[in-house]
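Trying the structure run again after the queue cleared.
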Amino acid sequence: MLRKVLSLLICLILVLNLPVTAKADIGPKPSVRITFTGIKGETYYGTLLSERRSTGPATAWDGYEEYRDWKPESEKPIWEKFIAYEDTDGYYFLQEWWDCSETNQLNWTYYPPTPFKILLYFPETDSFYVSDIYERYAFDSYFSVDLSEYATSPITARQSYDYTWEVISLVARIVLTIALELAIALLFGYREKKALGFLAIVNVITQVVLNVALNIINYRSGSMGFTFAFICMEILVFAIEAITYKAVLHRYSEKEKVNRRGVTYALVANTASFAIGLWLAHLIPGIF
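Done. C-alpha cells:
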C-alpha cells in the first residue's frame, strides 16, 4: 500500500512539472535580480542586453522612437549612451535601465530577457562594462557581481540563490506538518504506539514527497504555479491517506476497529495542514 502511495505522488510530481502555457497575462512573472558589491559612492546605471529585439513590452530602439516620457528627463543622456552602445555579440538594449547607485541592485521583474548580458555605464568616466552571456536558471534568478575590480572586462556574475535557506525551510515545513497531523491523531484517539507509528510513516512519505515537489515547482514556476500545485497535491494526498487509513489503520488501532474514523481524520488533518501552510506562506513568504 505504501509503495502505491509513493508511486502516485511521484506521478503527480511529473505531471505538475510539465510545461504549461498560460495565455492570460496574470500572476507573477519571472525575474532577474542582480546585487552589486565592492562599490561605494559612485554613480552607475545598469541594464540587461537581450539576444532578441523585444521581450514583453521592452523593445530595442527602432531608430525613430522618441525618448520615453515616463522616464526622468534628466536621464535622457543615459538613454542616449545606451542607445549608442554596440555589443560585440549583437545583443540589444531594450530601453530599460536603472540607476543602481543607491541600492546596488538591478531588478528586472517583468519579462526579463534570456539569454542576457549585464551592461553597466559609469557617467563619471564615460565607461561601459559588460558581462558574458547568462541565462535565467529559476523562476526568480538571483545573481551577484563583485565590482571591486570592475576595470577588468567582462564583469563576472555568479548565481546567488539561497539554497541553504531552501533546505532549512523545507525541513521545517515537513517537521511542522507531521507534528500537527500527529497531534490531531491524538485528538482523534489514536494513542497506540503501533497506530501512531503507522500514521507517522504515512505522513513522512506523503509530506516529504509533497514538500519536495512544491519546492521544485516554486523554484521553476513561481508562487502562482506553487499555489495551484499545492491545492491539487493536497487533494491527492488526502485521497491517498483516506484510502490507506480506511484499508489498513484498523490493523494497528483497536479504536479504529470499533469506530472507523480514518477518513474523517485524513480530511481534518490535511485541511488543517493546508490552511496553516497557506497562512505561513503569506506570513513568512521565505518559508516557501
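Residues 15-26 have pLDDT under 50 and may be disordered. Worth checking whether this holds up in the mutant runs.
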